[in-house]
Amino acid sequence: MTWVIIAQAVLWVWFIGCITTYRFGKILLVEGMGVRSAECVMLVLYALGLGAFHAYYPVGRWVLLAILLLWGAVQFRCHWYYTIFGASERKLQGYNDCFRGTLRLFPMSETRLVPDLYHIILHLLILINIIATLIPVK
Fold first, then answer.
1. How far, rounded to the nearest angstrom, does the alpha carbon of residue 113 sit from its chain's CA centroid?
2. 22 SS3 class
3. With contact defined as beta carbons under 8 Å apart, do 46 and 75 qualify?
4. d(Cα 44, Cα 34) in Å, to the nearest integer?
5. Which of 11, 55, 64, 82 could cross-link to 125 by cystine, CB 3.0-4.6 Å?
């Protein structure tokens, strides 16, 4: 159970970066969108899911899983769909403009959407939390 709580906490703290900017000196990890954003709504939903998970287990487990699956689907649609299948010139330009200054493992592409480091880690953490939620806690 401890590793599940750690995974949940790490995802929650990591995702706060979408609300408030994470910058380390001149290195921009992610530009926060503020409390009046879809990202903040998702953070609140995730926090409610965590509350349900811990207060109403095992029923809360399914609430959290539904929220994580929704979040994962939205992230896939906003990022990986366009990485895999390609993006229109307009979508690619908008994405690259939005994440131009962020830290990257792989350079931006003129033909494919390439997620930055922050989003790659975010997506891995969402996946880890989906797996953690599927494993029954004893």
1. 16
2. strand
3. no
4. 13
5. 11
What does the pLDDT look like over 2-49, one tens digit per residue?
A: 999 999 999 999 999 888 888 899 998 888 888 888 888 999 999 999
For the four alpha carbons of 87, 121, 128 and 67, in that order, the dihedral sign comes to: negative
Q: Which residues of 93-126 are buried (b: 16+ CB within 10 A; e: fewer)?
A: eebeeebeebebeeeeeeeebbbbebbbbbbebb
**Residue 20, token pair as written in the block:** 């408030």
**DSSP H or E stretch at residue 5:** helix 2-15
Rounded to an integer, what distance in angstroms lies between the CA atom of residue 70 and that of residue 84?
Answer: 19
**Spatial contact of 30 and 21, defined as CB atoms under 8 Å apart:** yes
Domain ranges, ordered by start, for the chain: 2-133
Q: How far is CA 122 from the centre of its chain?
A: 4
